[in-house]
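User: Quick one: structure for sequence A, then sequence B.

Assistant: Sequence A:
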Amino acid sequence: MIIDVHGHLGDILYPNGGDLIYKTGAVKPKMYDPQDNNEQLLMRSFGLGKLVYHLLMTPATKAQRARNATATLENLRTTLDAAGINYTVCLPIAPNVTFDDLRNAADMESRIIPFTSVDFTKEHDVEKKLEDDVSRGAAGLKLHPIIQNMPLTDRRTMEAVQHFSKHQKPVLVHSGKSQYYLKEESHLNTPENGDIAHVEHIVRSFPDVKFIVGHAGLFWQDEVRSKLHDCKNVWVDTSFQSPRNIRKLIATFGAEKVMFASDWPWGTRLPHIKTVKAACRGDRSLEKMVFYENARQLLEIEA
């Protein structure tokens, strides 16, 4: 049994991104993709990951954008079947992809677990919108401070989490500095919003809210461990982390707080599965926790 706690559907970078969900025949073009090399090495960067990412920033961004363009329901089903995944969390990033987009897709594909999001681009009753989404099946809240250009420390973000807290469902926050736009759109990049200090601020501000720290901080997982090690309300996902780093996360937060994730389509599911297996070193009980049981309990999925 496998639950992927961090995945996407639709074009999360641009408005009306939900239209991509129902496209057919979407294929990533042949191109140099640094992530392919990363996945072949099971995310092992040998201490050079951050440096390599900065050196290859442009081709890496181009390739990730190409991956994003394959986030269709057709491709999602194919990857779930190939990887033997029972459920996948799908994370909206409003206003580009919304809860409504994912709720509609979930009606067509029972393996989708939709989260909700907050549209920070317009004035509306955020509390009521979140309440409505939860009543319709939203299993959690997604915050992406970089793509949404809304710092985790901003008053509007804090108010949204306060409203959502009464539902006692998890909040998944992107963590780590990354970029998504090129050339004339480069002004849309706000990598500083992924700073781990911002994650710490919101986590400690709401000790009763269960936070999933997305990607465990990317290249800043050491900072995630040092700043959040004593926070009982923190879970982490394994996307883009090496076997060694996953073992570090387990040692810091406990085996019950680490959950499998691929960030599909930005990451490929099968290499991420192999990475977790390598981290668990044949411990079937540990594999069960990371692949399935921890997420099942957090998301309140029936066994």
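Sequence B:
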Amino acid sequence: MITVAVLTLSDKGSKGEREDLSGPLIADILKPIGADLKYYEILPDEKELIKKKLMEYCSKVDLILTTGGTGLAPRDVTPDATLEVIDKEVSGIAEVMRSEGFKKTRRALLSRAVAGIKGNTLIINLPGSPKAVKENLEIILDVIPHAVEKIKGDTTECAMP
């Protein structure tokens, strides 16, 4: 069982001015890998608040998925907050999301999403739109359980026969 926290980063969403469709969608997409959503919050695009929540959830869950705040707008600070929290970057996750996303839209190149590890928790930044969340999460979904096992200390061989 993979325990999960989902953080939606949206100024409008945090004020109740926009319905969050991406956060609940993440929870649905994770069901096939046996993920258990423990925490779900909508926060404004405030870097220090995002960092604080990431740190809080790192001691409580195996996986944190953020949605929103990964673009080029001045208030898009999710990757910046994540980079200040993680101990190790897992660049391949973000690289493949951008690469595969580029096949659908050239705008995928504008994503600043990052992924990394803090302690025993994997943190992955996803875009804000439900369509992009679905597309990106489906690209990486099958590697999440393996990544979480390794982060928790699994020492079995990774090579496939």
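The mean pLDDT is 96. The chain has one domain: 5-117+132-151.

User: Thanks, that's what I needed.
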